[in-house]
Amino acid sequence: MPILYSHPISQHYRRVLALREETGIPHETCHISLDTGEHMSSDYLLVNPNHQIPTFMDNDVTIHESNTILRYLCQKHGLTDWYPAELVARTAVDQWLDWTQCRLGPATFFVVFNTVFAGDRGDKSAIALGHDSSARKSAYRLRRRALPQQRTHHMAHCHRLF
Ligand SMILES: N[C@@H](CCC(=O)N[C@@H](CS)C(=O)NCC(=O)O)C(=O)O
Predict the structure, then answer these.
(1) How far is the CA of 97 from the centre of ligand 1 (A)?
(2) How far apart are CA 103 and CA 108, in angstroms?
(3) Closest C-alpha to ligand 1, atom 16
(4) Which residues contact ligand 1 via a Cβ below 6 A?
(5) What are the pLDDT digits (tens) for 70-120?
(6) Which run of H or of E encompasses 74?
(7) Is 92 within a domain?
(8) What residues make up the domain containing 140?
(9) Nearest CA to ligand 1 atom 11
(10) How remote is the CA of residue 51 from the centroid of ligand 1, in Å?
(11) To test ligand 1's pocket by mutation, which of 6, 47, 52 has the most ligand atoms within 8 angstroms of CB?
(12) Domain count, the chain
């Protein structure tokens, strides 16, 4: 049975958990304690040289990037509803995965870590940066683009312009 190394506070782990819960694909979970520094142990560093959660092990395959795990699982289990085979549809999924990794994830970390976890010791400038980040603004724009009625509205606007 494949093993997913996990910790419940990890947003990157929860992506993989969400796919499992939605699709029922099987794997065991192995809790790694970020609180006690287990992710820095020499044993875990052999599993994940970046000392991060999650890591997925499927026999002799070891994957330590959450989005790569998602793609691997979808392709292994033929989950084309989640990760389409058709190029343009797949590219749309990849684009959101990359955006989540590069933009939304860091902004979320700044805010959540410095409020929920650090409490009064939280870095206020990091919180402000997270709130004010381009991720939040682009989330709004991308959401508008993703909605068909908004796209129609946008196209009508373009027709008026040209
Ligand atoms: N790019 C990685 C990021 C993983 C990541 O940042 N994991 C955090 C928890 S959400 C972690 O393990 N941090 C501990 C550390 O970096 O030492 C992925 O998508 O899997």
Answers:
(1) 15
(2) 9
(3) 52
(4) 10-12, 34, 39, 51-54, 65-66, 101
(5) 999 999 999 999 999 999 999 999 999 999 999 888 888 889 889 988 989
(6) helix 66-76
(7) yes
(8) 87-161
(9) 52
(10) 7
(11) 52
(12) 2
Q: Whose CA is nearest to atom 19 of ligand 1?
A: 66
Across the chain, where does the E strand assignment appear? 3-6, 28-31, 55-58, 61-63
Mind giving me the DSSP string for the chain? --EEEE-TT-HHHHHHHHHHHHH----EEEE--TTTTGGGSHHHHHH-TT--S-EEEETTEEE--HHHHHHHHHHHTT-TTTS-SSHHHHHHHHHHHHHIIIIIHHHHHHHHIIIIITGGGS-HHHHHHHHHSHHHHHHHHHHHHHSHHHHHHHHHHHHHH-
pLDDT mean over 27-56: 97
Q: What is the reported pTM?
A: 0.84
In angstroms, what is the span from residue 57 Cα to ligand 1's centroid? 16
- The domain that holds 64 is classified in CATH as 3.40.30.10
Confidence of residue 147 (pLDDT cuts 50, 70, 90): low
Tell me, yes or no, whether 9 and 67 share the same domain: yes
**CB count in 10 Å sphere of residue 12:** 19
Q: In this structure, is residue 81 part of a structural domain?
A: no
| Rounded distance from Cα 35 to ligand 1 centre (Å) | 14
